[in-house]
Amino acid sequence: MPPDHPFPAALDDCMALYRSLLQERRPDEIIVGGASAGGNLAAALVLRARDEGIALPAAVVLLTPGSDLTGSGDTLQTNLGLDPLLRGDGKPAFLLYAAGRDLTDPYISPLFGDFKKGFPPVMLTTGTRDLLLSDTVRLHRALRVAGIPADLHVTDAGGHGGFFGMAPEDEEIAREIRLFVDAYWNAGRTQADTAGRTEESGGNG
């Protein structure tokens, strides 16, 4: 954590782990995800992996991600005092993390990334009282505009982190995540099986 380990230390760690995982698993067997600051890192990881020519995961799950550290999202004002978890201005922490870097750097604020260059399918979640509702909604729109398959799930009256696992809405979101993850893992397995059968047929021919 900053100030001892500001950007890009956390992202470097994520990249190191992802490269290591790719030595053990095919990309279509990997789904990257994260919540809040973790959602920021998950999205930034995929952008950086793409830019470095590294194979991308099958899909991405972003739970109320902090996608814009410039603090320009509308709900940072309109939901101030309504979110039960996030209660104040995060800008000082964002500046500490960025350590003098431009806050619009896509690896710091993934919202500003160029998604037209490619990005896996995404599932995003948020709530109507989430301080980062705007971060999530605008990221969803940016992905859709770029032609990236992206699903957005918004819970009524949900704050940052939903209802802390204590409401039926949390169970619904968990079910949606499982359906999303299973769909892309199954797609990867189907492609691998088809490729394997093709190779076997070719060998027998």
Give the secondary structure arrangement, pairings included.
Blueprint (H helix, E strand, L loop, with lengths): L8 H14 L8 E5 L1 H15 L7 E5 L11 H4 L12 H8 L23 E6 L5 H13 L4 E6 L12 H37 L1
Parallel strand pairs: 1-2, 2-3, 3-4
Helix pairs in contact: 1-2
Can you walk through the features of this model?
There is one protein chain. This protein has one domain (9-204): Alpha/Beta hydrolase fold, catalytic domain (Rossmann fold, 3-Layer(aba) Sandwich). It is α/β, with parallel strands linked by helices. The chain has helices at residues 9-22, 37-51, 75-78, 91-98, 133-145, 168-204, and strands at residues 31-35, 59-63, 122-127, 150-155. Helix 1 crosses helix 2 (37-51). Strand 3 (122-127), helix 5 (133-145) and strand 4 form a beta-alpha-beta unit. Strands 1-2-3-4 form a 4-stranded parallel beta sheet, sandwiched between helices.
